[in-house]
Amino acid sequence: MKSSLNKLSGSTYARWILLFFIAFTDIWAVKNPGLSFIIFLAPLIFVLLHSFKLFGKKHTFIIFGIIILISFISEYLGVHTGRVFGPYYYNPSSKVNGFLWGGVPPLVTFSYISMGYCSYVLSRIIFGKLGKLSGTAIAGVPIVAAMIMTMWDMSFDPIASYVNKIYTWYEGGAYFGVPFRNFTGWFLETLVFFVIIGIYFSLFAKAKDYLIKPSKLFLAEVIFLVAANAFGTISHEFHNPTIIQQAMAIVALFGLGMPVVIAGFRLLESNK
Length: 272
Known about the structure:
mainly alpha, 9 helices
């Protein structure tokens, strides 16, 4: 069993510097195509550092590999068949996407990793299960994590597709041009890799592999990142008060805000 993180270390300061930098880029969106990789890279570095402490390096690389594999396969099938999320394509002229491989930007898997990790840890905080899962948490943690991921997508998908043209839906949809199937696809896709991660931990992770008693500050880092992302979406409404942006601000405030608030109070009442 790993010991508790009660002392501020160099890695703690590094993670918080990254968090404030991510918050800055969320609020003042990076518009220079040459710097757009920061949107993907900074959160990825943070979750790597955080997961190294929480789950260890070996388990981190394996669970992140699971997310990369499932997300890329899903996006590939989605682009070429339209059966996962609905018919769409990534805009090859968008500098944010980077290069396309089989019609899919590999960079998108970085977002899946950062969002997926934060959603998974946030769900564990809500359930109060930071070590080996047991009882209803075995099913509850991946389901809630997948719902958080889907809500996250709901807060930015219309902006990314309809406004920024990062990808395009062939047939549009009822949710500001995004089809209903996209969100059911997101939920099922993310549920698959959260379930696989849960099975992996159940079979191969031992009690000593978990950071059983992480400090509240350490866990608050994940809550802060999700809150910063939500606040970034909300803040854009003030200087770009379009109907879509206002709607996304509402989704971010109450949709993403709910698990953030629940996890925050759960953390405050914890004796750990």
